[in-house]
Amino acid sequence: MLGIQRDEFGLSLTRDNQPDLKDVGRFFGAPGSGFWVAVDPDSDAIVGCIGLEAVPGGTGAMRKFMVARQWRGRGAGVAEALHGTFVAHAAAVGLRAIILATVTSTQAAQRFYERAGYRRVTREELPAAYSPGVLDTVFMQAPVTKLLQH
């Protein structure tokens, strides 16, 4: 994850300045939360991941959704599979909405989110209990029912 964040997007992030990496159990081990990985069947290398943090009030926060460069694109299906698993879990545990935050340089990811049914919102529209990343400036949300239709 850090390689994608630093090498591809030039973000000055470390494990220490990302609370969800520093305290994985608190963010992804709580009831309703989860963390999934995609694995290359030939090498057993992790090629993608996505995390769900259950936020009080029936909302889930998408965190750490990343796919290795060579596994991106509509043909590979890694992002779609991870996101589909994530949304199915959110629905199964009764979450009503998903929120996410990202940085402006993730243009392709933002297009993926928009195609999936997310819309941009302001930071003020996010639940008070949600803490976006230190560099995040783009915020999106979608009802789980809408995400299930894509």
How is this structure best described in words?
The chain has 150 residues and is an alpha+beta fold. The protein is globular, with a radius of gyration of 14 Å. The model has no long low-confidence stretch (mean pLDDT 86). It has a single domain (2-148), classed as Gcn5-related N-acetyltransferase (GNAT) (Aminopeptidase), CATH 3.40.630. The protein has six helices and six strands. The protein has helices spanning 2-8, 19-22, 24-28, 78-92, 107-116, 144-148, and strands at 34-39, 46-55, 59-67, 97-102, 119-121, 138-143. Strand 3 (59-67), helix 4 and strand 4 (97-102) form a beta-alpha-beta unit. A six-stranded mixed β-sheet has the order 1-2-3-4-6-5.
Keywords:
alpha+beta, 6 helices
By DSSP (H or I, 4+ residues per run), the number of helices equals 6
CATH topology: Aminopeptidase
Mean pLDDT: 86
Helix content bin? 25-40%
Radius of gyration: 14 Å
The parts where pLDDT drops under 50 for at least 5 residues are: none
Order of helices and strands: HHHEEEHEHEEH
Domain tally: 1
Question: How large a portion of the residues is in β-strands, by DSSP E?
Answer: 25-35%
Q: Gap between N and C termini, in Å?
A: 26 Å
In short:
The chain has 150 residues and is of the alpha+beta class.
List the helices and strands and how they pair.
Elements: H1 2-8, H2 19-22, H3 24-28, E1 34-39, E2 46-55, E3 59-67, H4 78-92, E4 97-102, H5 107-116, E5 119-121, E6 138-143, H6 144-148
Parallel strand pairs: 3-4
Antiparallel strand pairs: 1-2, 2-3, 4-6, 5-6
